[in-house]
Design a protein that fits this description.
mainly alpha, 0% strand
């Protein structure tokens, strides 16, 4: 089952990356153009997000109506509903970085294949930030411990 999950994840990643490339979302100028509402606004990202929502919203409801995911024993859905300072600060930091650089994690990882120094620098900084967060918060240790105790590599203690 683990091998099947790995290939399913790889296939989904390839489809996602192709979608980002075809839609032009790996180009930071498009994203920055979308965020520049007072200048030369580029609505491309709005159409990409709208198209994604047209597919994702009905699919989400349909999939949750099933007893369990196709490749897992159960759904792992968020349970926290409060807005706390780490969430707000992290969201703000993400938004500022997205606006300054024009990349969010998915398109940045897909754009690594271009080999451009700016992309590689962004992804390196992103990975360093993720590692720093895991180290400071101790999340990596608790996630690993939870996974080994339950025998489920997808366990998420949050």
């Amino acid at each position: 089952m683990a091998v099947l999950r790995t290939f399913a994840a790889l296939g989904c990643g390839i489809v996602f990356g192709l979608g980002l490339a075809i839609s032009g979302m790996m180009n930071p100028a498009r994203v920055i153009g979308f965020l520049d509402v007072t200048g030369n606004w580029d609505p491309t990202l709005a159409f990409v997000m709208g198209g994604a929502l047209l597919i994702a919203l009905p699919a989400y409801r349909l999939i949750l109506g099933r007893g369990h995911p196709a490749l897992a024993g159960g759904f792992t859905l968020p349970t926290r509903t409060i807005l706390d300072s780490p969430l707000i600060l992290g969201s703000a930091l993400f938004g500022v970085g997205w606006g300054l650089v024009g990349f969010c994690p998915g398109p940045a990882v897909a754009a690594v294949m271009t080999g451009l120094p700016a992309v590689l620098g962004f992804v390196a900084a992103m990975l360093a930030g993720m590692a720093l967060h895991a180290w400071v918060s101790g999340e990596r240790t608790s996630r690993t411990r939870s996974s080994s105790e339950t025998g489920d590599a997808t366990a998420d203690p949050r």
